[in-house]
Amino acid sequence: MRKPENPVCDFCNRPTPDDNGTRTHLANPFMLTVIAHGQVVPINFTEEWLACPECDALIRAGDKAGLLERSLEGAPTDPNSVIVIQGLFWKNKR
């Protein structure tokens, strides 16, 4: 399991305490290609996704809409990107 210095939730981007892997969700790795500032940028998503306690509960309940709503509350990026990334997470979730 990864051990980031200042872990944040991979879903809502809020700071989250290190959980020693108990709130890490696995998905088959996938790549998404985006265009940013006129450049084609491939983004590789690894198999490990860290969730804060609130997002973890939503994932375990299978509440896709609730997870998306929580993630969009503080999304620093384009909402469409969040929708696509979460859709790919659920599609590849193990």
Summarize the structure.
34% of the residues lie in helices and 21% in strands. It has 94 residues and is an alpha+beta fold.
Structure description:
This protein has 94 residues and is an alpha+beta fold. It has one domain (24-92). Helix content is 34%, strand content 21%. It contains 3 helices and 4 strands. The protein has helices spanning 53-60, 64-73, 79-92; strands at 24-26, 30-36, 39-45, 48-50. The strands form 2 sheets. Strands 1-4 form a two-stranded antiparallel ribbon. Strands 2-3 form a two-stranded antiparallel sheet. Strand 2 and strand 3 (39-45) form a beta hairpin. Helix 2 (64-73) packs antiparallel against helix 3 (79-92).
Globally, the shape reads: globular
Rg over C-alpha atoms, rounded to the nearest angstrom: 13 Å
Q: How confident overall, as mean pLDDT? A: 89
| Sheet of most strands | 2 strands, antiparallel
The chain-level structural class is alpha+beta
The largest sheet has its strands arranged as: 1-4
- Extended strand count: 4
The helix-strand sequence is EEEEHHH
Q: How many separate domains make up the residues?
A: 1
- List low-confidence stretches: none
Number of helices: 3
The first-to-last residue Cα distance is 16 Å
Percent of residues in helical segments? Answer: 25-40%
Keywords, separated by commas or semicolons:
94 residues, two-stranded antiparallel ribbon, single chain, 3 helices, alpha+beta
Strand and helix map with partners:
Elements lengths: L23 E3 L3 E7 L2 E7 L2 E3 L2 H8 L3 H10 L5 H14 L2
Antiparallel strand pairs: 1-4, 2-3
